[in-house]
Design brief:
Blueprint (H helix, E strand, L loop, with lengths): L5 E9 L10 E6 L2 E7 L5 E8 L4 E5 L3 E2 L3 E3 L6 E2 L2 E3 L6
Parallel strand pairs: 1-8, 1-9
Antiparallel strand pairs: 1-4, 2-3, 2-5, 5-7, 6-9
């Protein structure tokens, strides 16, 4: 039995002024199937750890962010996926 390689995806969710946003939910899919969720902390940071290397992952935050999701194909090393809130347009 070989050693299973594990990787992680971490990142930050910020507002238009680069301030971290607390309690944003992020969904993770692995090879098209739901693989977990994470919440940002008070600094806007999140982490998906202990992921199998070599899979295709998509990270999608709940809400209006840029980009709307990030795809990490054949993930072999730890990756960063940051998101920024879309600027609000005053009425």
């Amino acid at each position: 039995m070989g050693t299973r390689t594990v990787v992680s995806i971490t990142g930050t969710v910020t507002d238009a002024n680069n301030v971290g946003i607390n309690n944003v939910s992020l969904a993770l899919t692995k090879n098209g199937a739901a693989a977990g969720t994470a919440q940002t902390n008070v600094l806007g940071n999140y982490s998906f750890g202990n992921l199998a290397a070599g899979a295709n992952y998509v990270v999608t935050p709940a809400g209006s962010f840029t980009p709307s999701s990030q795809t990490l194909n054949n993930l072999a090393v730890n990756a960063t996926a940051n998101f920024k809130a879309a600027p609000s347009i005053p009425p």
